[in-house]
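Can anyone check this?
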Amino acid sequence: MERSVRAAALRLALWNALAFLMVLLAADAAFYLVAMGSQRDQLAELAGTPLGDAAIRAYARSLMVGIAAASVPILVASAAAAYALGRLAVAPLAESLERQRRFAAQASHELRTPIAVIAAEAEVALRGGNRDEALEALARVLEEARHMGHLAGDLLTLARPASGMSVVSEPVDLQDVAATTVRRFAERARARKVRLRREGDGFALVMGDRERLLELAGNLVSNALRATPPGGVITLSVRPGRGEAALDVRDSGSGIPRERLTEIFEPFVRFGVDGDGGAGLGLAICRWIAAAHHGTLEAQSEAGRGSTFTLRLPARTG
């Protein structure tokens, strides 16, 4: 990416320098003509004699040298400035293209595994041997196909800019989102011997898509369950406020190293303690949903001391 940025910046600098050179040459020519014209009477008196003509030529040369001496540093400085500005202008585009390239490569890698499983299981089913074995193979094909469908849906979501997407806009109480999420994950939490609870009172109304917000809360709780050992606690708390409402998902799990907090919302970034981190799209989807609701999703964590994810959304007014 660095090489492409330099090349694009250099091209932009050359075009800018060429344009500035044309302007500078025009300005120098105008200055030369004005300077010669201002001395027209004196030069006319000198013209016609060998010494006079030589003096006129010397004056013209000294004038051109002075103009060039003043113009060259300006041209060099402008070219350097154009190159620096070109790098600043091109870098975001190059970075965006590089992110797209990585995204496509990682998506291809994620899809390759279920495709390989489907192909292998389909071969088993087509052998025409044991009927039970064929049915088991077809069941695994169906499972992988559903996984691919879910993965493709997530990839399609992340391929769309959240700022340009419209979501369902209806009154949603974050208390209801928290309570529903606790009910949905209660059995999984009991199976892992983790206490899942909800805190907070009072309505916290926002405008948004209830199903999308439930998806966001569910992803956060699912991640917390993977990170929290038996005997741990996961708490969902809702905090109504002036102008905004917040939903916190706090766990007592393994935590996330501080140096990774800047990258955990990127697609395909995995973390967890049991090796089951999914495709690494959950938090990227969560931040996408938050942005589509004109809100933010932030994380606070420290390795070995648990994590807190905070969703902030504009409160409903009126």
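Reply from J.R.: I decoded it. The chain has a mean pLDDT of 75.
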